[in-house]
Structure formats: C-alpha cells, structure tokens
Fold this protein.
Amino acid sequence: MRRSARRNHGPRSREADRRRLEDAAEFYLHACYGTRTAARAEEFAAYLALARPYLSRRVTELIGIPVRDFLRERQLAYAQRLLRTMPLLSIEQIALASAFGTGWTFHRCFKAAFGMTPAEYRERERR
C-alpha cells in the first residue's frame, strides 16, 4: 500500500510546526539583538523565505496571535530579563538590545503589556 505524499496535519505535526516556528523566532530575534536592529514581521518572513501573508496565517494558526504580537512577546520577555539582570544598562540601551528600535516604542509596548514603565518594573524588581 502506498503512503500518501500529503503531510500529516495531526496534533503532532502542528506541535512540531509550532516548535520550529518558535525556534526560528528565537534565532531571528537573537540576530536582531546582536545587531541592535528593530524586529519586524516583514524581515522575519524574509528570514524564513516566506511570503508575509503566509507567515501571518501560519503564526495565527499555530500560535493563536498575530506575528507582530508573537515577536513582541519574546522581545518583552528578553527586555524583562535584561532589566532584572543588567542594572548598569540604561532603559534606552535595553530598548535597543531587545530589538525595539527606539526607547519610545519600548516604553509604550512595555507599559501596555505590564501596566508599568520599564523603570518602574526595574525598581520593583530591585526590592
């Protein structure tokens, strides 16, 4: 009996696709962190050699949120880690190091996500 050439889209395949996507996002973001460039969904799609609309659909299918939010959550988690562990870095340096591009964008996104500014978060974590 011949096996179908079609890809298995069962739970295991979806989970494997999700893990691959998460790993790819980490690699992409680490490249952005290293060069201190802003992370962008269009560049992530190009990094993966995928069309932006296709990537958007796949991220929403596999992760359940838009690609921009998918990247942003990871950037914010990295920024939180830097705020806790790198007290000598300024907020602006952390914004650049976590691929936000500008301090203003970082401040706005951080406050929207956590209800406090990066400086307030850092101060709270020191206690």
Helices lie at 11-35, 41-47, 52-63, 67-85, 91-97, 103-114, 118-126. Residues 72 and 122 are 19 Å apart (CA to CA). Confidence is low (pLDDT under 50) at residues 1-6.
